Amino acid sequence: MTKYKSSYRKLFSATLAAAVATGALVTVAPVYTAAQAKSFSDVKETHHFYEAVMNLTARGVINGYEDGTYRPGQNISRAHAAKIMALALGLDTVNVKDPGFKDVKKGHPYYGHIAALVEAGIIRGYEDDTFRPNGNVTRAHIAQMLVEGFDFEEETLSNLPFKDVNGKQWFANYIQTLYSNEITTGTTATTFSPNAFVTRGQVASFIYRSELKKIEEGGGEVTPPVTPPVTPPVTPPVVTPPTNGGGGDVTPPATPTAEQELNALLLQHIGAGTTVEGPVSILLDGKEFTATATDGATVTNFIAAAEAAFDKVGTAVVVTKGTVTLPGGGEVVVGDGATEQKFDTLISSALGKVGLKGDEDLSLFKGKSITVNVTGKVNGVAFTDTYTFSFSE
Q: Which pLDDT tens digit goes with each residue over 171-211?
């Protein structure tokens, strides 16, 4: 642990203790009124992240986009995650040391937030001296950021129910820590999906739950966020806003990329899960599909579930070529790059190429994954992206 990080943690703990002692709870999860909260057209009270998004928005930690949306199902960028984390922790984003990233210069809108987190020892860049601000963040990496940033005592892997996390993985203890502190319940009862990209809605929930847990540890009361306080809330500390001049957390491109449109479309229709009349169900989180099969389920059942899932997207998405990586490591190329077909047809063709027939038992896939690098069109615009199908045990 660096000297700076040790000092930062002491400061964070002291600030939290002071907030709890005074009842202000300003630095961490303060009370807000309905009038203070900005509403988003795509964030409803029935969403699991509603409370978190409303609280963080009222405090100026997140802003949403100028079109009145928050886009909770969109994968979050590394720069954007750094901004939200730095503001939630109340870090000084002005008086910072240059982290030396070749792709994050002092004029970058999130330079201060990224530099503050690096200086606090919460995030790091890559070996080539880049930060890759536009890249996405995996669920494993956000787990590390939360444990380091909120100073949770790291726990050793012990009672995790997640079959896709084991003691040999670098992130196992971070995920165990979040699970023990009731900050995560996984993407399913038995999976955490550590390599899936984390979404904007999930990040809001993770940060808010972490804040509430630190209040609980300090002995403070957690007041329901939509209940007006008896006394006016204390004004939060002033945080220098980003210099991009826009109302969104990250200035959105004039036209979303085809890959972004594809993922948003899939999350909109499949994110809540698709179950067919049969023994297989499919759930989408980030870019990872989780297929859950009952005993006796076959390849035919899986293809039927995939077809039902992708039928919801309609004709907006077609694929022309795919490279399917099978659990054993072998690769199968399907499609000629020109003929349009449905996603589930491509997968079915790939399984057929390796000799898996419709009546094959799906149990041979349990606990394993199939990765699909696919090329196609979404609403007539070409895309290339990678998705993973993971089979629950």
A: 999 999 999 999 999 999 899 999 999 999 999 999 999 99
Q: Strands 381-391 and 288-293, how do they pair?
A: parallel
Residue 37 confidence (pLDDT): 53
Residues 204 and 48: their CA atoms lie apart, in Å, by 10
SS3 letters for the chain?
A: CCHHHHHHHHHHHHHHHHHHHHCCCCCCCCCCCCCCCCCCCCCCCCCCCHHHHHHHHHCCCCCCCCCCCCCCCCECEHHHHHHHHHHHHCCCCCCCCCCCCCCCCCCCCCHHHHHHHHHCCCCCCCCCCCCCCCCECEHHHHHHHHHHHCCCCCCCCCCCCCCCCCCCCCCHHHHHHHHHCCCCCCCECCECCCCCECEHHHHHHHHHHHHHHHHHHHCCCCCCCCCCCCCCCCCCCCCCCCCCCCCCCCCCCCCCCHHHHHHHHHHHHHCCCEECCCCEEEEEECCEEEEEECCCCEHHHHHHHHHHHHHCCHHHEEEEEEEEECCCCCEEEECCCCCCECHHHHHHHHHHHCCCCCCCEHHHHCCCEEEEEEEEEECCEEEEEEEEEEECC
Whether 170 has a pLDDT exceeding 90, the answer reads yes
- Judged against a pLDDT cut of 70, whether residue 334 lies above it is answered with yes
pLDDT score of 282: 74
- Amino acid making up residue 254: A
Residue 114 in this model has a pLDDT that exceeds 80: yes
State percent of the chain over pLDDT 90: 38
Dihedral of CA 386/208/103/121: which sign? negative
pLDDT-based confidence at residue 98 (cuts at 50, 70, 90): very high
Spatial separation of the C-alpha atoms in residues 70 and 62, rounded to whole Å: 9
Nearest to 323 by CA among 384, 392, 258, 262: 384
Q: Buried (b) or exposed (e) across 41-54, using 16+ Cβ within 10 A?
A: ebbeeebebbbbbb
